[in-house]
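In response to reviewer comment 3 from the previous cycle, which asked for concrete evidence that the modeling workflow produces usable outputs, we include below a single protein chain processed end to end. The sequence was submitted unchanged, and the resulting C-alpha coordinates are shown without manual editing.
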Amino acid sequence: MKRAILGSNTFEDCGNIIIVFGTPLFSYTIDGQVKLSFKVLSPPANTPIHIENNDKIAGNVTVKADDKSASISLNLPESKAANKLIDLSIDNGTAHINLDLRPLGLNIYSDKNAFHVGGSQLSGNVFKNCANGIAIGD
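The workflow returned the following C-alpha coordinates.
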Protein backbone atom coordinates (compact mmCIF):
# COMPACT_ATOMS: atom_id res chain seq x y z
CA MET A 1 0.00 0.00 0.00
CA LYS A 2 1.31 3.42 -0.97
CA ARG A 3 0.38 5.96 1.70
CA ALA A 4 0.95 9.72 1.90
CA ILE A 5 -0.03 12.47 4.32
CA LEU A 6 -0.55 16.07 3.17
CA GLY A 7 -1.64 18.47 5.90
CA SER A 8 -3.98 16.31 7.96
CA ASN A 9 -5.25 14.41 4.88
CA THR A 10 -4.33 10.80 4.09
CA PHE A 11 -3.97 9.35 0.59
CA GLU A 12 -3.88 5.57 0.21
CA ASP A 13 -3.20 3.86 -3.12
CA CYS A 14 -3.92 6.96 -5.22
CA GLY A 15 -2.31 7.35 -8.64
CA ASN A 16 -1.77 11.09 -8.18
CA ILE A 17 -2.21 13.02 -4.99
CA ILE A 18 -2.70 16.40 -6.71
CA ILE A 19 -3.14 17.42 -10.32
CA VAL A 20 -3.09 21.08 -11.37
CA PHE A 21 -4.80 21.90 -14.67
CA GLY A 22 -4.52 18.26 -15.76
CA THR A 23 -0.82 17.83 -14.88
CA PRO A 24 0.29 15.77 -11.87
CA LEU A 25 1.99 18.18 -9.46
CA PHE A 26 4.45 15.65 -8.07
CA SER A 27 5.30 11.98 -7.84
CA TYR A 28 7.98 10.01 -6.04
CA THR A 29 9.70 6.65 -6.02
CA ILE A 30 12.20 5.09 -3.66
CA ASP A 31 15.17 3.54 -5.44
CA GLY A 32 18.15 3.70 -3.09
CA GLN A 33 17.12 7.28 -2.44
CA VAL A 34 13.89 9.23 -2.77
CA LYS A 35 13.37 10.29 -6.41
CA LEU A 36 11.03 13.27 -6.66
CA SER A 37 9.37 14.58 -9.81
CA PHE A 38 7.57 17.95 -9.72
CA LYS A 39 5.94 20.00 -12.46
CA VAL A 40 4.18 23.36 -12.37
CA LEU A 41 3.28 25.09 -15.63
CA SER A 42 3.26 28.83 -16.30
CA PRO A 43 0.50 29.89 -16.27
CA PRO A 44 -1.00 29.27 -13.73
CA ALA A 45 2.29 29.74 -11.82
CA ASN A 46 4.39 32.85 -12.41
CA THR A 47 7.39 30.68 -13.36
CA PRO A 48 7.57 27.10 -14.69
CA ILE A 49 9.28 24.40 -12.62
CA HIS A 50 10.05 20.91 -13.92
CA ILE A 51 11.99 18.23 -12.04
CA GLU A 52 12.23 14.57 -13.17
CA ASN A 53 13.62 12.03 -10.69
CA ASN A 54 15.62 14.74 -8.86
CA ASP A 55 17.03 16.15 -12.13
CA LYS A 56 16.26 19.80 -12.88
CA ILE A 57 14.71 20.26 -16.34
CA ALA A 58 13.43 23.85 -15.88
CA GLY A 59 13.32 26.48 -13.17
CA ASN A 60 15.65 28.29 -10.82
CA VAL A 61 15.45 25.66 -8.09
CA THR A 62 17.64 23.58 -5.82
CA VAL A 63 16.89 19.87 -5.40
CA LYS A 64 18.12 17.93 -2.37
CA ALA A 65 17.55 14.22 -1.81
CA ASP A 66 18.76 11.28 0.25
CA ASP A 67 17.44 7.83 1.13
CA LYS A 68 14.58 9.13 3.30
CA SER A 69 13.69 12.57 1.92
CA ALA A 70 13.68 15.00 -0.99
CA SER A 71 12.97 18.69 -1.30
CA ILE A 72 12.76 21.37 -3.96
CA SER A 73 13.43 25.01 -3.14
CA LEU A 74 12.89 28.05 -5.33
CA ASN A 75 15.91 30.35 -5.53
CA LEU A 76 14.69 33.93 -5.49
CA PRO A 77 17.17 36.67 -6.45
CA GLU A 78 15.78 39.18 -3.94
CA SER A 79 16.11 36.70 -1.08
CA LYS A 80 19.27 35.09 0.23
CA ALA A 81 17.22 32.18 1.55
CA ALA A 82 15.58 29.65 -0.73
CA ASN A 83 11.83 29.14 -0.49
CA LYS A 84 10.92 25.48 -0.07
CA LEU A 85 8.19 24.45 -2.52
CA ILE A 86 7.92 20.81 -1.52
CA ASP A 87 9.46 18.71 1.20
CA LEU A 88 8.80 14.97 1.19
CA SER A 89 10.04 12.54 3.84
CA ILE A 90 9.47 8.82 4.22
CA ASP A 91 8.74 7.33 7.64
CA ASN A 92 7.80 3.63 7.94
CA GLY A 93 6.64 3.56 4.31
CA THR A 94 4.46 6.67 4.64
CA ALA A 95 5.30 9.84 2.71
CA HIS A 96 4.87 13.03 4.71
CA ILE A 97 4.49 15.99 2.35
CA ASN A 98 4.78 19.70 3.06
CA LEU A 99 3.85 21.89 0.14
CA ASP A 100 3.98 25.66 -0.40
CA LEU A 101 3.39 27.07 -3.89
CA ARG A 102 2.85 30.66 -2.73
CA PRO A 103 6.35 31.72 -3.91
CA LEU A 104 5.15 30.73 -7.42
CA GLY A 105 2.09 33.00 -7.15
CA LEU A 106 -0.33 30.16 -6.34
CA ASN A 107 -2.25 30.24 -3.06
CA ILE A 108 -1.74 26.51 -2.47
CA TYR A 109 0.02 25.25 0.66
CA SER A 110 -0.16 22.77 3.51
CA ASP A 111 0.36 23.02 7.23
CA LYS A 112 -0.04 20.45 10.00
CA ASN A 113 -3.80 21.08 10.17
CA ALA A 114 -4.92 21.28 6.53
CA PHE A 115 -4.23 21.55 2.84
CA HIS A 116 -5.15 25.05 1.64
CA VAL A 117 -6.26 25.94 -1.90
CA GLY A 118 -7.25 29.58 -2.28
CA GLY A 119 -9.76 30.28 0.49
CA SER A 120 -10.69 26.60 0.91
CA GLN A 121 -9.09 24.03 3.14
CA LEU A 122 -9.19 20.26 3.31
CA SER A 123 -8.68 18.74 6.73
CA GLY A 124 -8.89 15.21 8.10
CA ASN A 125 -9.94 13.55 4.82
CA VAL A 126 -9.01 10.06 3.66
CA PHE A 127 -8.66 9.42 -0.09
CA LYS A 128 -8.45 5.73 -1.06
CA ASN A 129 -7.95 3.90 -4.35
CA CYS A 130 -8.39 6.97 -6.53
CA ALA A 131 -6.77 7.95 -9.81
CA ASN A 132 -6.45 11.59 -8.66
CA GLY A 133 -6.94 12.62 -5.04
CA ILE A 134 -7.31 16.37 -5.59
CA ALA A 135 -7.82 18.07 -8.96
CA ILE A 136 -7.26 21.83 -9.17
CA GLY A 137 -8.38 23.71 -12.30
CA ASP A 138 -9.81 22.33 -15.53
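Residues 3-136 form one domain. We consider this sufficient to address the reviewer's concern, and the full set will be provided in the supplementary archive.
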